[in-house]
Amino acid sequence: xxxxxxxxxxxxxxxxxxxxxxxxxxxxxxxxxxxxxxxxxxxxxxxxxxxxxxxxxxxxxxxxxxxxxxxxxxxxxxxxxxxxxxxxxxxxxxxxxxxxxxxxxxxxxxxxxxxxxxxxxxxxxxxxxxxxxxxxxxxxxxxxxxxxxxxxxxxxxxxxxxxxxxxxxxxxxxxxxxxxxxxxxxxxxxxxxxxxxxxxxxxxxxxxxxxxxxxxxxxxxxxxxxxxxxxxxxxxx
Length: 237
What we know:
Elements: E1 10-19, H1 29-39, E2 62-72, E3 78-84, H2 88-102, E4 109-112, H3 119-129, E5 150-152, H4 153-158, H5 168-174, H6 189-195, H7 199-221, E6 231-236
Parallel strand pairs: 1-4, 3-6, 4-5
Antiparallel strand pairs: 1-2, 2-3
C-alpha cells in the first residue's frame, strides 16, 4: 500500500477506559437519570444498574485511565510512552503535549484499531469536557477527509467492506501474531481498575495492544517488519 505514510511518521495509540464511578449507586442523580435513559436503547431485559459495567465505553459516562503510545524513530527503534493514573485531565494534558511537540507536522498521523469510532473521538470529547483545547491532530471540524491525519487498521482491513467488526485479537490471530489478550481483555478492565486496584496490569495490557497494532499495520502495509528494541518512557500521572 504505497499510499500509506512511512512508519516513522505514525504515532500508534491505544486507550483504556472505565466507568467514572465504582458502582452505579455512586453515580450522581442527574447523570444516573441520563444513564437510565441511555439504557433504554440497549433493548435487553435488564435494569440500568446491571448495564453499568458498560459505562466506560461511552465518553459521557466513562473516563480514560491509560493512553499508551508507540512510535519508530528515524533509526527504526521502537519507543513507547505511557500516560496513566487516576487524574484523567493530567493524562490528557500530557498526551496533548506529546503530540503537539513530536507529531505536529502535517506528515505525522495517529493510528489506532477502531480509532475513528472509539479512541480518537473519545479522547477529543474528554479533552473538551475538561476544558482542554484540541491539538491540531484531533481537530477535524471543517477539514476535508484527506486532511484528517487519522489511520484506522480496522478500516484498512475492511477494504470497503462494512459488514462486520474485526477485533485486534482476530487480526493478530490471522496474521499469526502473539495475542495481546493473554492476561486481560477489554471486558476485564473495569474490574481490574475499580475492584482490584491494579492499574499497572491495565497499562501492561494496553502496551501489548499498541505493539500488536504496530505489527498489524506492518502486515497490512506490507512493509519490512521491525523488531521492538524498547526505549521505555513511563510517566505516572
